[in-house]
Amino acid sequence: MRQWAGPEPRFYPHAAQHDFEAWLLQYGDEIKKATGCNRNCPSGNPELVKHGKPPARYLHQAYRTGTRTRNTRSYIKAIEPLAILRGQDLTVAAKKCGELRALLDTILTLCGAAPIS
Fold it and tell me: What is the pLDDT of residue 48?
């Protein structure tokens, strides 16, 4: 990405491996609470979860089959992550997700704050 952008010092390349939803997988209890789905989130490094389907598909399935969301709503990428993350500590996911941590460290450093320790 840096080669594509050229010598631009204001360019900070960060990208999720598959879907940004991989960063949400650390909040399995909140996903269960929001959806009523009793399935566990995929284990392992969240940024490497694929297993034949991207992390967003796991969330679509949880919303489609959960007892609280099955007939009332589906997973909407622009809305549901906020419901999952509301009140949560992002460092929980950042400690498991290297790219998320790098993104947050960049933002914190640019704001004059200390990076995540």
Answer: 80
Write b or e for each residue in 83-110: b if 16 or more Cβ atoms lie within 10 A of its Cβ, otherwise e: ebeeeeebeebbebbebbbbbbbeeeee
Residue 39, both tokens: 């399935």
Yes or no: say if 91 and 75 are a contact pair by the CB < 8 Å rule: no
C-beta atoms surrounding 37 within 10 Å: 23
Cα R_g (the chain), whole angstroms: 16
| Helix, strand, or coil (residue 21) | helix
Task: Please tell me which residue, 37 or 14, carries the higher pLDDT value.
Answer: 37
CB 22 within 8 A of CB 16: yes
Q: What is the pTM of this model?
A: 0.78
pLDDT of 108 strictly over 90? yes
DSSP secondary structure, 41-82, as one string = PP-S-GGG--TTS-HHHHHHHHHHH-TTTTTT----TTTHHH
Inter-residue contact 60 to 75 (CB < 8 Å) = yes
Does residue 51 carry a pLDDT above 70? no
